[in-house]
Each structure stands twice: as C-alpha cells, then as structure tokens.
Amino acid sequence: MPTSASKRRTTTYLHRNRRVRVPDGHLAVGYIVGAHGLRGEVRVELHTDFPDRFVPGLRVYLGEELEPIDVQHARPHQNQLLLLLDGIHNRAAAEELRGLWLFIPDEQAAPLEEDTYFVHDIIGLRVVTDDGRALGKITEVLITGANDVYVVQDASKREVLLPAIADVVRLVDLDAGEMTVTLLPGLLDE
Fold it and tell me: I want to staple 162 with a disulfide (CB 3.0 to 4.6 A). Which of 19, 150, 158, 186 is the partner?
C-alpha cells in the first residue's frame, strides 16, 4: 500500500541557508526562486552537479507533496536555470511556484564519483574519531558553498561542527553506518 505524502519520512538539511525537507526515496535537484518573463518560466537555483539532467520530458516533483510535473524547456541564465513546466503558461502561475523545491526519485540519480555521497546517506551516521572516541550522530549537513559541514550531535544534544574535508573525514562506511574522523585542533571545546 503506498504511503501518503504526509506520512513519508523526510531528511532535512540546510542548503545555502534554506531548509530543505527531502521526502524519502527522492533527491532535491533545485529550488524555485521566482518567475522569469511573462510566458511562465521559473528561475531555479540548482541543487545538483548535473544541470544537463533538465531536458524536455523530464518528470520532476514539486514540493514535499511531490506533485509530478514535466519539463518542457530548460536554459541556463545567470548561474541559474530557467525552466518552462507543463501547465505553467503565465507569470502569475510561475510566481505561485516560488519557494518550492524540485525533486527526482532516487533511481534517477546520476552515479557519484568515489568518496562522494548523497546527503541522505550521511545523515544518521555514527561519528567516531580515529582513536575510537564516539562523538555522536550526524543530524544535519550544512551546504555552505566552500565545503559541506556536518553537524554531529551527542546524546546530551551537544553539537560539533565538522568540515567535510579530507583532513577531517577519514573513512565513510555506509554499510556499518559509521564515519571515522580526525579532529583538527579547535574543532572540540574541551
């Protein structure tokens, strides 16, 4: 029996200071920042390393309700993407979509390079130091632009912010549900 949108599990994280709640089984690929022109195009801030995925006929899903809609046309514009979506024929209709995230199903995800992970794979991992000390679990990923930052919370709700850089993250073992890190000076308040 299918799960209703309101009962779906979600993963929540920050992307450029915007909270995104990603329904289980989906990936966020863009955020609609507004309308463009009079014909119904929307301006999309990309949340994917694969902007060429936006081709005519691609089905994307709007908002946490996952309303299906097809891409009619896509074109780059000033570090964003302009999309013309089925059924959106004027500026007023495009403006109504402002603030919605665009999602795709997990199975449409592009293959990742080695040592690259989806946010939903990282959230929930236990974090241990390379000397075996448990730090807590990753509760959030902050996508800052320079490098991601992992928010690790221990049982007492104390948070540690870990930069997602090679000098800190030593091993990610998704099967074991664990990340091993090296703590650089100043990362822990002790």
Answer: 150
Burial 95-125 (b: 16+ CB within 10 A, else e): eebeebbbbbeeeeeeeeeeeebebbebbeb
pTM here? 0.70
What ranges make up the beta strands (E) of the chain? 10-15, 18-23, 26-36, 41-46, 59-62, 67-77, 80-85, 101-105, 126-129, 134-143, 148-153, 159-163, 169-173, 178-181
- Indicate where the chain has its CATH 2.30.30.240 domain(s): 121-181
pLDDT of the residue at 17 = 60
Fold of the 121-181 domain: SH3 type barrels. (2.30.30)
Q: What is the pLDDT of residues 53-73, one digit of tens each?
A: 999 999 999 998 999 999 999
**CATH number of the domain located at residue range(s) 23-107 in this protein:** 2.40.30.60
| pLDDT, tens digit (0-9, with 9 covering 90-100), for 82-131 | 999 999 999 999 999 999 999 999 899 888 888 888 777 888 899 999 99
